[in-house]
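### Sample
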Amino acid sequence: MVDNNTSSSYSASDDNLPKIDLFGGGNVDLRTVAPLYGVASEEEPDYLDYDIKGRGTVERMFLYSGSSYLTGILTGGILGGRTGWKTAPSPRFWLRLNSVMNGAGKLGSKWGNNAGVFALMYSLSESLLDHFETDKVLGGHQAVNPVLSGAISGLLYKSTAAPRTAALASVLGGFGAGMFYVIRGQLDHFYYR
């Protein structure tokens, strides 16, 4: 219940904050109550939370795995549909459409799942390397963590294959992550001049 006399009688010197009568217990000055509820006073600035390292682990995980899954399922679906169109057992439309849909579903789901799993391993290894500040230990260059994350992800992804295959996947993962880092840097430089 707001006291009409007090709510209409405050002035600019009171910072336009009314005094409220709560249950007849007296007037409550909002300037004294505001800091309890996280409202900044005029004397101190109100800052936004900012993580200097960028996105958190869970945000990276969802971003990388989701976008990689979508890219993989679209790319695999297009290639599988093209293969299904070429290898259709009959030139009739419905049989050819069925072959396209089967090929797109088979290859699209395979590529999407593989890309999503690889991106999940990449995001977790990148977050782990960021946590231990590996880039500062190994020379301070920003490209160290993405390249190492790609190499670790490639190694883990093909760890059940032969050792040479796992080593090759590690090199390809590191190279791919390094190229993506360079391309992303060039695009950032191009768009944010």
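The CA atoms of residues 34 and 188 lie 41 Å apart. This sample (Mitochondrial import inner membrane translocase subunit TIM23) is used throughout the tutorial notebook.
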